[in-house]
């Protein structure tokens, strides 16, 4: 990653955003950049090398595709059941990104 001290988060505007939401968007921005800009699936990695690598690729694709839909949704308000459910889903997906981070290299 060139200039690793700078991360532009495409999915957050210049309005106020709480750190928990920034964390979600930052992690998924890193995933998105790795897939799109660093071409994670088209360059130097043999994703068919082992079952572990195939499973990692599948998980990365699942998370990436989920984020492409999720990023278009508003930040959930956790003052109601629907918002709390969406927030917990976001947390679960964020944890899944952390679990596959070792595969995000090109």
What are the main properties of this structure?
globular; mainly alpha; 54% helix; 3 helices; 0% strand; 106 residues
Structural overview:
The chain is mostly helical and 106 residues long. The protein has a domain at 36-103. It contains three helices and no strands.
Average pLDDT score: 91
Task: Name the helix and strand elements from N-terminus to C-terminus, one letter apiece.
Answer: HHH
Rg, rounded, reads 15 Å
Beta-strand percent range: under 5%
Q: Major sheet, described briefly?
A: none
Apparent shape: globular
Q: What helical percentage do the residues reach?
A: 40-55%
Total DSSP helices:
3
Which stretches are poorly predicted, pLDDT < 50 over at least 5 residues?
A: none
**Separation of the first and last Cα atoms:** 9 Å
Q: What's the β-strand tally?
A: 0
What class would the helix/strand composition place it in? mainly alpha
